[in-house]
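Support request, please re-run this one:
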Amino acid sequence: MPPEGPTDARVVAEDRSPQAIAAGQRIFRFDTFGDEQFWTDTARLHEVIQSSVSPTTALSVGLKVDADAIPPDIAAAIKAGQVDLNDPATTVTLLKLNAVVGVQGTVETVNGKDVLKRVGITCALCHSTVGNPSRKA
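Re-run finished. Output below.
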C-alpha cells in the first residue's frame, strides 16, 4: 500500500501543520516499527516484565510514566498508597493504560488476570524527558 500524503521528504519535513506535528508525536510516542517480533519472540521481554519488573524497578532504571495516561481514580489510589508499586502486575496495568513512556504492551485479560502478550519499544524510550509531578521542588 503506498504511503498517504506527500512522498517528497522535503515537503514532509516542511509541513509544520498541527496535524503533521500531532502525527509525528504519535509516531514518536507509540510506534514500535514492528519491533515486537524481536522483544517478544526473541528476547521474551514480555515474560520478564510480567514476572519481575515492578513500577519501582522500572522507574529506578530510568523508565518514565505518563501521568496524563493514568485515570484520576487510579492516580488517587497511587498517591494514597493503595497501589502496590512493587508488584509486576501493576506494571502490566500501566502498560495496558499506555502509561509507560517508550514501551508498548499488548495486554489481554485471561481468566480475570491481565497478561502481557507482546511488547515493543518506541523512540520515546530513549529520546524523551518528562516532568515529575509527584515530586516536590
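Residues 18-30 form the longest helix (13 residues). DSSP finds seven helices and four strands in the chain.
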